[in-house]
């Protein structure tokens, strides 16, 4: 098969006094993610999408939250390791499309740097990485600012 598609989703609760890492960058906010790693929901969703595209389970299987090796780990490291697994199966990224769902903070000013950062970690052109953000119109846990989620779709292609 020359092309494969993967889908990923991640969610973390938000709390005061925590850091908010999204797309590999620190986003200033009064709340951050509660997590074993740095809690970067965007990168975690992308990792799951990549792993799913090649039927390699999920991020929790490869980097369990029961392991001290991954305590407070920078999710960019996890993304690089996942991409090494994907390349090991002979695939490369065609493109990534992702959406972050959060009522606050407003993310539009941070998205270009997220896209550049993700592209740099993966060694792909920034045009291959699309990040969007949406509120949930104050509905659900994101709307109540109890948590944040991200969705990602990836297209990978077999390398020649």
From TrEMBL:
<feature type="binding site">
    <location>
        <begin position="134"/>
        <end position="137"/>
    </location>
    <ligand>
        <name>4-CDP-2-C-methyl-D-erythritol 2-phosphate</name>
    </ligand>
</feature>
<feature type="binding site">
    <location>
        <position position="141"/>
    </location>
    <ligand>
        <name>4-CDP-2-C-methyl-D-erythritol 2-phosphate</name>
    </ligand>
</feature>
<feature type="binding site">
    <location>
        <position position="12"/>
    </location>
    <ligand>
        <name>a divalent metal cation</name>
    </ligand>
</feature>
<feature type="binding site">
    <location>
        <begin position="36"/>
        <end position="37"/>
    </location>
    <ligand>
        <name>4-CDP-2-C-methyl-D-erythritol 2-phosphate</name>
    </ligand>
</feature>
<feature type="domain" description="2-C-methyl-D-erythritol 2,4-cyclodiphosphate synthase">
    <location>
        <begin position="3"/>
        <end position="156"/>
    </location>
</feature>
<feature type="binding site">
    <location>
        <position position="144"/>
    </location>
    <ligand>
        <name>4-CDP-2-C-methyl-D-erythritol 2-phosphate</name>
    </ligand>
</feature>
<dbReference type="GO" id="GO:0008685">
    <property type="term" value="F:2-C-methyl-D-erythritol 2,4-cyclodiphosphate synthase activity"/>
</dbReference>
<comment type="subunit">
    <text>Homotrimer.</text>
</comment>
<dbReference type="GO" id="GO:0016114">
    <property type="term" value="P:terpenoid biosynthetic process"/>
</dbReference>
<feature type="binding site">
    <location>
        <position position="44"/>
    </location>
    <ligand>
        <name>a divalent metal cation</name>
    </ligand>
</feature>
<dbReference type="GO" id="GO:0046872">
    <property type="term" value="F:metal ion binding"/>
</dbReference>
<dbReference type="InterPro" id="IPR020555">
    <property type="entry name" value="MECDP_synthase_CS"/>
</dbReference>
<dbReference type="Pfam" id="PF02542">
    <property type="entry name" value="YgbB"/>
</dbReference>
<comment type="similarity">
    <text>Belongs to the IspF family.</text>
</comment>
<feature type="site" description="Transition state stabilizer">
    <location>
        <position position="135"/>
    </location>
</feature>
<comment type="function">
    <text>Involved in the biosynthesis of isopentenyl diphosphate (IPP) and dimethylallyl diphosphate (DMAPP), two major building blocks of isoprenoid compounds. Catalyzes the conversion of 4-diphosphocytidyl-2-C-methyl-D-erythritol 2-phosphate (CDP-ME2P) to 2-C-methyl-D-erythritol 2,4-cyclodiphosphate (ME-CPP) with a corresponding release of cytidine 5-monophosphate (CMP).</text>
</comment>
<protein>
    <recommendedName>
        <fullName>2-C-methyl-D-erythritol 2,4-cyclodiphosphate synthase</fullName>
        <ecNumber>4.6.1.12</ecNumber>
    </recommendedName>
</protein>
<feature type="binding site">
    <location>
        <begin position="58"/>
        <end position="60"/>
    </location>
    <ligand>
        <name>4-CDP-2-C-methyl-D-erythritol 2-phosphate</name>
    </ligand>
</feature>
<dbReference type="GO" id="GO:0019288">
    <property type="term" value="P:isopentenyl diphosphate biosynthetic process, methylerythritol 4-phosphate pathway"/>
</dbReference>
<feature type="binding site">
    <location>
        <begin position="10"/>
        <end position="12"/>
    </location>
    <ligand>
        <name>4-CDP-2-C-methyl-D-erythritol 2-phosphate</name>
    </ligand>
</feature>
<keyword id="KW-0456">Lyase</keyword>
<keyword id="KW-0479">Metal-binding</keyword>
<dbReference type="InterPro" id="IPR036571">
    <property type="entry name" value="MECDP_synthase_sf"/>
</dbReference>
<feature type="site" description="Transition state stabilizer">
    <location>
        <position position="36"/>
    </location>
</feature>
<comment type="pathway">
    <text>Isoprenoid biosynthesis; isopentenyl diphosphate biosynthesis via DXP pathway; isopentenyl diphosphate from 1-deoxy-D-xylulose 5-phosphate: step 4/6.</text>
</comment>
<keyword id="KW-0414">Isoprene biosynthesis</keyword>
<dbReference type="InterPro" id="IPR003526">
    <property type="entry name" value="MECDP_synthase"/>
</dbReference>
<feature type="binding site">
    <location>
        <position position="10"/>
    </location>
    <ligand>
        <name>a divalent metal cation</name>
    </ligand>
</feature>
């Amino acid at each position: 098969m020359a092309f494969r598609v993967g889908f990923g989703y991640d969610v973390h609760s938000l709390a005061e006094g925590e850091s908010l890492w999204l797309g590999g960058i620190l986003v200033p906010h009064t709340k951050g993610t509660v997590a074993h790693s740095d809690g970067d929901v965007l990168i975690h969703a992308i990792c799951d999408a990549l792993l799913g595209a090649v039927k390699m389970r999920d991020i929790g299987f490869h980097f369990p939250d029961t392991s001290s090796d991954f305590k407070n780990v920078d999710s960019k490291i996890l993304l690089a390791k996942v991409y090494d697994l994907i390349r090991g199966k002979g695939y490369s990224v065609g493109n990534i499309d992702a959406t972050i769902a959060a009522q606050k903070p407003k993310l539009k000013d941070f998205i270009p740097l997220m896209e550049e950062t993700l592209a740099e970690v993966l060694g792909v052109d920034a045009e291959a990485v699309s990040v969007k953000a949406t509120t949930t119109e104050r509905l659900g846990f994101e709307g109540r600012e109890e948590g944040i989620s991200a969705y990602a779709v990836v297209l990978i292609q077999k390398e020649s």
